[in-house]
Amino acid sequence: MTYKGQVVSSKAGKFFVKTGENEIICSAKGSLKIKTDGILIGDFVEIEDKVIYKVLERKNKLLRPSVSNVDVVVIVTADLPKPDYYLIDKFISNSYLDGIPCIIAVNKTDISNNEFDKIYDNYSSCVDKIFPVSAKTGKGTEEFLQFLKNKTCVFTGQSAVGKTSLVNFLFGENNETGELSEKTLKGKQTTTCSRIFEKNGVKIVDTPGFSALNVDILKRKLSSSYPDFEKYSGFCRFNDCRHINEPHCAVIKAVKEKNVNAERYSRYLEIYKNAKENRDYGKKN
Ligand SMILES: Nc1nc2c(ncn2[C@@H]2O[C@H](COP(=O)(O)OP(=O)(O)OP(=O)(O)O)[C@@H](O)[C@H]2O)c(=O)[nH]1
Ligand SMILES: [Mg+2]
Ligand SMILES: [Zn+2]
């Protein structure tokens, strides 16, 4: 028998494929196994005798976390753990380069919401929406869920910001969540593999939290990965302007005129410097 389905999770060389109401544990045909992106979560596939033999054409592919056929990346943040703004910048750069819209959900607003203004100032011009929410009380989740309707949404962000808690609240699931313990602060993840959950036409991909994101972002054109710079970069004197110290750089001018957020720009310089040093020293990034 052959079936069509969607890969909803994978673990240790096994793929969990949803076909209608059933979930079939599959292996992969040899040629699909050897490629690192041979089969991704989110892929629509054809299977025969529990073997995936064909991956249907992908609409798109998010690099980190690795998921295909994505409609929106949801960066989840909270006051605790304290937001890592470099990490948020990199998530935005990656989804922008992958051509996938991005939004931010600021969770745990039932405890406090002190970072919201900073998040708004930094990111309102580069993400489509910023939702304050609480997975504990449900505050703000109706509007949030409305936005997610009919979309495949990848929840990403630091560990312990409440990605799984949000999935549990929105879908009435009961997946394991973790404490914000010393261990978590050191990078322990509660969720260890990505999985797609689905309800009422919304698909959410819950993913393991990141503590760092080391993508070779220079190779991925860092200077054109900032949606908030793009409005200006066309006016830079040089076509290949890196917006670092070039004369007549329209991005630097926009920062001076407060049209581009200065904190975001200074982190850009730092990310650029680090990416360049790592490349120069030949480190694997
Ligand atoms: N007060 C409050 N606590 C929350 C909220 N959302 C999550 N938490 C708590 O935050 C901790 C971490 O939540 P998780 O849902 O496991 O976080 P995660 O982002 O899935 O973490 P990883 O799977 O490690 O990436 C748990 O103790 C949750 O109870 C919220 O809206 N309010
Ligand atoms: Mg989790
Ligand atoms: Zn420039």
Radius of gyration: 20 Å
Run of helices and strands: EEEHEEEEEHEHEHEHHEEHHH
Proportion of helical residues: 25-40%
Q: Supply the number of helical segments.
A: 9
Provide a descriptive summary of the structure in words:
- By secondary structure, this protein is α/β, with parallel strands linked by helices.
- It folds into three domains: 2-57, Beta Barrel (OB fold (Dihydrolipoamide Acetyltransferase, E2P)); 62-206, 3-Layer(aba) Sandwich (Rossmann fold), CATH 3.40.50.300; 222-280, Ribonucleotide Reductase Protein R1, domain 1, CATH 1.10.40.50.
- It is 28% helix and 24% strand.
- The chain contains nine helices and 13 strands.
- It has helices spanning 30-34, 85-97, 116-123, 141-148, 163-171, 182-185, 227-233, 250-256, 262-280, and strands at residues 2-11, 14-19, 22-28, 44-48, 51-55, 61-62, 67-68, 72-78, 102-107, 130-132, 152-157, 195-199, 202-206.
- It has a six-stranded mixed β-sheet, with helices on both faces. A five-stranded mixed barrel has the order 1-2-3-5-4. A two-stranded antiparallel sheet has the order 6-7.
- It is globular, with a radius of gyration of 20 Å.
- It starts with a strand and ends in a 5-residue tail after the last helix.
- The model is unreliable at 280-285 (pLDDT under 50).
- Residues 233, 236, 241, 243, 246, 249-251 line the site of zinc ion.
- The site of zinc ion has 8 residues, from helix 8.
